[in-house]
Input
Amino acid sequence: GTLLAILQTNAVAAMGINPQTGERSGGIDPSSAKMFVDMISMVNDKMAGNLSEDEEQILSQVLSELRMMYVQHVGIG
Output
């Protein structure tokens, strides 16, 4: 829960979006955004089979949303 929230908040902020409001909030740092999304993906892979169904669903939903946001706000990368 907490690790995912930290990584998600940092990924969103690195995409130039205020994590609290969802509004644009400045510069985009593509390499940091990608790193945080990749870290969540790695956590997802490492935790496979060790999470409850709800936890797996939340993790995969967060990852999917962040990947969509990345493409929308940063580009393909």
Observations:
- The radius of gyration is 12 Å.
